[in-house]
Specification:
binds magnesium ion, Rossmann fold, Dna Ligase, domain 1, binds adenosine-5'-diphosphate, D-amino Acid Aminotransferase, Chain A, domain 1, 13 helices, alpha+beta
């Protein structure tokens, strides 16, 4: 395929901002041999910047993005077809409209993890702008981000998930005592409390008794309006599997991995901060750096079961692009519960596809091909309908 102008949007107003910077840089390096990469960095405050200088991790270590990038945005207006950019020296968007440049983009790759990137909001903007983009559409992204919503979809598709209840922040803050009793009745101990819509284990806590339950509920309630509480998957191992497909591309599963947690569950530190010197990774390697076993040391039978469930979970939310489906597996009984789907997985799960016969460049090309197919499919649909209601000669105010 001819070289395309590929916008990669990363960073963002998300607790996973830094992880996204790493994911995007890995992806941009994989795209660079075949395509023209246009980095679009969204700061923690939500400012959009673009410029070739942003394709350098040192910029983020040294906090130099302000000088390396130029303010830009994607207009929701259909037909602009890309980025609206203002020359660096001007400062302040649209002060002098004649200086504004349009940078066309053939396709956008959302590489923001979590809030305002993986949750359907960015996808909604790209829908309005009518720019082809990789990954899930806005609904699938929103569902994949919201733990109660995704579990409802999985359950509806006959996929085993752990039971759960949803608590509201207000009840936790106003009446902790009865909220705790509610959890004890419905779930018991040990229980996991999770904000509905975060990621990277932020705000998640495990409670083995009433005192810790009170604590973890209050912590979770600082992060979200809705808190999911479910039993701990005791005696299980975690097995992840990536899925690639959508828009006419048959969804297929990668090899499975077993991420290896150092403590009781995978915390943000386990996922991203291990492996560097002094216990922390200044030379961030993203999800690639996580200790993991690939392929996962489970039976062929269980591997197939996880892969089938991963594909079904992906399809149940109408997934597209590349996702990672995380499961709890009880080896003795052969039971598998799907825990969650990540629709913008760390490092785009390239390390799983590398073990499945697709290199990182090939994975990015697949994401582009799927994105373009999705956009073409949408163009074939009818979005307009001539009602005639507003025709001059129709008169009256008849209701239609
Ligand atoms: N019900 C559970 N039982 C056991 N461990 C859990 C449970 N829920 C979450 N965990 C642990 O917490 C981690 C983060 O939870 P997860 O639901 O994946 O949220 P996130 O969206 O933050 O990744 C998981 O990878 C797992 O290690
Ligand atoms: Mg997870």
């Amino acid at each position: 395929m001819a070289s395309l102008k590929v916008g990669v949007i990363f960073g963002g107003r998300s607790v996973e901002h830094d992880v996204s910077v790493v994911t995007a840089h890995q992806a941009m390096a994989a795209l660079a041999p075949d395509h023209e990469v246009i980095p679009v960095y969204v700061t923690r405050e939500g400012k959009w910047l673009t410029g070739p200088g942003l394709n350098d991790l040192a910029v983020y270590r040294d906090k130099r993005w302000g000088s390396a990038g130029t303010p830009c945005f994607i207009s929701p207006e259909t037909g602009t077809g890309g980025l609206t950019v203002e020359p660096a020296a001007q400062g302040g968007l649209l002060k002098r409209t004649r200086d504004v440049r349009y940078l066309p983009l053939d396709v956008v790759i959302p590489a923001i993890h979590g809030t305002f990137g993986e949750d359907g909001t960015l996808q909604g903007l790209l829908e309005l702008a009518d720019i082809p983009y990789a990954g899930c559409n806005s609904l699938a992204s929103a569902v994949g981000m919201d733990k109660p919503a995704m579990k409802a979809c999985f359950r509806d598709a006959g996929i085993a998930v752990l039971d759960h209840i949803v608590l509201h922040r207000d009840e936790i803050l106003s009446d902790l005592g009865s909220t705790v009793e509610k959890v004890e009745d419905a779930i018991g101990y040990p229980a996991f409390a999770k904000p509905s819509r975060l990621g990277s284990s932020v705000g998640i806590g495990k409670a083995k008794d009433r005192a810790t339950l009170q604590e973890v509920l209050q912590v979770a309630a600082t992060y979200d309006r809705r808190i999911l509480v479910e039993p701990s998957a005791e005696g299980c191992i975690e097995i992840n599997c990536s899925v690639l497909g959508g828009y006419g591309f048959q969804a297929r599963a990668s090899v499975c991995e077993q991420p290896v947690a150092w403590e009781e569950f995978l915390s943000f530190e386990d996922k991203y901060m291990r492996g560097g010197k002094d216990g922390g990774t200044k030379d961030a390697q993203g999800m690639e750096a996580l200790d993991r076993r690939i392929p996962a040391p489970i039976s062929d039978e269980l591997t197939t079961k996880v892969q089938e469930l991963a594909v079904r979970a992906f399809e149940s939310i109408d997934g597209a692009g590349v996702a990672r489906v995380d499961c709890f597996v009880k080896q003795e009984s052969g039971e598998v519960w799907v825990n969650e789907i990540n629709t913008v997985p760390g490092s785009f799960a390239f390390y799983l596809w590398e073990h499945s016969g697709i290199d990182f460049g090939g994975l990015m090309q697949s994401l582009i091909d799927i994105a373009l197919a999705g956009h073409r499919q949408k163009q074939d649909l009818m979005f307009t309908y001539e009602s005639g209601m507003l025709d001059k000669d129709r008169g009256g105010s008849k209701r239609g």
